[in-house]
Amino acid sequence: MATTLRTQWQTKQNYIWLAFGGACLFGALVFWAITDQEAVVEVEKKAESEVELQIQPEKVATTAHLGSFLDEVKPLDMTTRVVAIAQHEAEFRGTKFIQENKKNSTIELFRVSEEAIIKRFLQRQSDRQAFSYLRLTGENQIEQYVLIYGVYKNANEAQKALADLKLTLPKSVQPKVEKIESYAEYVNDLGSDELGLSNKLYAVQLKPAAVPVIDEATLAARQQAARAAVAQNKQSTTSTTVTRRDVDGNVVDVQKSQTTVENAPQNKTNEPEVTDPFN
Q1: Is there a contact between 122 and 137 (Cβ–Cβ < 8 Å)?
Q2: For residues 147 and 79, is the Cβ–Cβ distance under 8 A?
Q3: Does residue 215 belong to any structural domain of this protein?
Q4: Is residue 86 part of a domain?
Q5: Which of 89, 178, 226, 268 could form a disulfide with 108 if both were Cys (CB 3.0 to 4.6 A apart)?
Q6: Residue 155, domain extent
Q7: Is residue 226 part of a domain?
Q8: 115-159, pLDDT tens digit by residue?
Q9: pTM of the entire structure?
C-alpha cells in the first residue's frame, strides 16, 4: 500500500515539473517573439566633451589672421641679382650694362661654356677697351659666356663695324650682330663695373735724373782718419821692476811685472754711403 502511494506521488511530481518546464519554454518563446524586431534602432551619438567644444572655435578663429606673418617671412624677391663666385676680368658685365644699352646693338663674337677661354682670348689682345662679356643663365638656358665687341646705336652701324672688324678668329667662329636687349632675359649678374673690379692700366713714365758727383778728396780724407783711429786704438803696456835689498845693501830679490791698459773705445761715425739708383 505504501509503495503504491509513493509511486503515485512521484508520478504527480513529474507532471508538475513537466508542466513547469513547458510554461517556462512558452514564456521564453513569447519573450523572444516580442523582442525580435527587424527595424533599425538609431544609436545616439556620444556628446562631445567640453575640451573638444573649446578647440573648434579656436581653429575657425585662426583663419581670420591669414597673411599676418608677411613681415616675419617675406615673399621671394624675384628681382634679386646674383653674384657669381668667380674671379672675373674687368670686361665682365651684368644687368646694369644691359639696362643702360638695351636699345643699342653689338657684335657677338662667340659663345663658350668656359669663362677661361674668354679670359685667355682677352689676355692676347693688345687693346681690350671695346670688349665685354656676359654670363647667360636661365630656366631653359644652359650656362654660357658670350663675348661681345663694341656698343652701337643701331644694327646698321654694328653691321658696318663688323665688316671692318680686324680680329684673328678661327674659321668656325662667325661673328654676328645682336641687339643687347636680347640678352636681358638671361643676364642676372653684377658686373665688374658695379663691383669696382674694373682695373685700369696706368703707364709709368720715367724721367732722367742726374747722377750724384763723388768727391775723391773727401773719400781719401775719411779713409786716412779711419786709419789714424785704428792706430790709436792699439793697447799700451807699462813695465815695473821691484828690487829688494838687505841691511847691508845687497840685492836679495828682483821682481818684474807688466801692466796692459786698454784705451777707451772711440765712437765710430757712420759714414754716409753713396749709391747709384741706376746701378
Answers
A1: no
A2: no
A3: no
A4: no
A5: 178
A6: 95-195
A7: no
A8: 899 999 998 888 888 899 999 988 888 889 999 999 999 999 999
A9: 0.43
